[in-house]
Amino acid sequence: MLDAAASARRACRRASRGPSRDRARAWRGVSALGQPRERFRAAAGRALEDRHTQPALDAATGRLRDARLAAWGLLPDVEELRERGREIKQRTIDDLDRYLDEFSRALEARGGHVHFAATAGEAADTIRDICRRGEARLVAKSKSMASEEIRLNEALERDGLRVVETDLGEYILQLAGEHPAHIIAPAIEKTAVEVAALLGAVDGSELRPELEKLTATARRQLRAVFETADVGVTGANFAVAETGSIVLVTNEGNGRLVSALPRTHVVILGMERLVPTTRDLGVLLRLLARSATGQKLTTYTTVLTGPRRPGEQDGPDELHVIVLDNGRSQLRRGRYREMLNCIRCGACLNVCPVYRKSGGDAYGPVYSGPMGAVLVPLLVGLEHAPSLPHASSLCGACAEACPVKIPLHELLLDLRRDLVAERVAPFWERMAFRLWALAWSTPLGYRLSTAAARFGAPLARRLPGPARAWASQRTLPPLARRRFRDRRR
User: Fold this and answer.
1) For each successive 10 residues of the chain (489 residues), what is the average pLDDT?
2) Mapping DSSP to helix (H, G, I), strand (E, B) and coil, where does residue 359 land?
3) Where are the domains of the chain?
4) Do residues 31 and 364 make contact, with C-beta atoms less than 8 angstroms apart?
5) Residue 341 in contact with residue 146, Cβ under 8 Å?
């Protein structure tokens, strides 16, 4: 137990020691988070032109948004509850080393094993070793964004293992060879017709796009996986430090089957998902269910504490928890530490006008929407995700929807400042804003620039290079013939 606690501290120190450039280099080729500079713009452009996907995305996010508002409206103390949730997360992050030690001791006292991974590669390699020692052939997975973050499926498949997603949305996307488009509803952009074609292809049959038939078909296809899997892999919505418990929150029940039927259960736990006590857990569960799906409590809320004990009929023989750092320790020590308060409810995605039009693919294969636009650059370095801080109108709807009051729009604005300060922003962009600031720093410069703008604005779309690209994506309002200050004279 003491060795595990010491490992936790060493992992945290390793992850927080090096500069961001070294951290990004460690991620390259292992993590799924980084993206080329133009990825967001290109993918968002395709999404805007896709008349097939747009209605499905608008309808689904609208339903989730309305359900959250209705659920919050039934709470007499919603603002007090949000403040309590924010305080719990902040207190946990402030003293994370102690809670990691406490969690490790409690879980190992109940027969579990705790492994600390400083990087995505270490986490994937640890799980590969567990599967290798158990001579596993089939791995069943419950929905886990952390597993997407470390590219676990690719790592296991390279070892010859068969990996099957058992969350219905994730299963559909696995059949399609695609990544999740939403952290709560992975297949949010898929229509019933597309799902019917994918499930029918597995059986070599033609399915009607009817909900009951589609779910019955998926249930039958996945049942054999649950019954024969050697290893089950899940994420963790929360972990309780005082008891060493893992908490899974689902609506399909696959999380319980994946964690109970295989002889080995592996949990990938982002280190920020800890909560100090079961009392604290109750507050965050109330916030999570209402913010994610508009429910008082999800259909299945499972609390797991250790592997199967003598005399128990179900549960795994072995329970392994991989505590994932992957840049979180360094994030904890900086001015963006509030991002570690995120409980992954997806509420910010459902209200974001940029996400609702651009879709999840534009952000990359893991975290999307406002929370992804903040988190991904912080974990991999701004130079590897330079477009994401601009994926926002800064309207503030995301901060209003966040159950733990993360000021997402303010963090995005700070990241934009960092892009300029660290010279990650393109040279032409930095120069354009410097010239603008210089022109408007004197009354004469202001008068001359506004006069020139009256003649130049209509020609902006005809300019070459970056100016044309910028103007072509915006409707520029016409300038008044007389300025306000001139009319006052």
Assistant:
1) 42 38 36 59 81 84 95 93 98 97 98 97 97 96 94 96 96 92 89 92 89 92 94 98 97 93 97 98 96 93 94 93 96 93 96 92 88 93 89 95 97 93 75 81 82 66 64 68 67
2) coil
3) 2-27+96-329, 429-487
4) no
5) no
Report the distance separating Cα 139 and Cα 193, nearest Å: 28
Per the CATH hierarchy, to which homologous superfamily does domain 2-27+96-329 belong? Answer: NagB/RpiA/CoA transferase-like (3.40.50.10420)
User: pTM score, two decimals?
Assistant: 0.84
**What sign does the CA torsion over 388, 393, 398, 399 have?**
positive
- Asked whether the beta carbons of 65 and 350 are under 8 A apart, the reply is yes
Please, are residues 269 and 323 in contact by the beta-carbon 8 Å criterion? yes
d(CA 166, CA 300): 15
Please report, in angstroms and rounded to a whole number, the separation of the first and last CA atoms in the chain.
Answer: 78
Q: Using CA atoms, how far apart are residues 391 and 394, in angstroms rounded to an integer?
A: 9
Residues paired with residue 117 on neighbouring β-strands, in sequence order: 324
Phi, psi of 349 (to 5 degrees): -65, -40
Q: What single string gives the DSSP state of each residue in 389-407? A: GGS----SHHHHH-TT---
Tell me whether strands 238-240 and 245-250 are parallel, antiparallel or unpaired: antiparallel
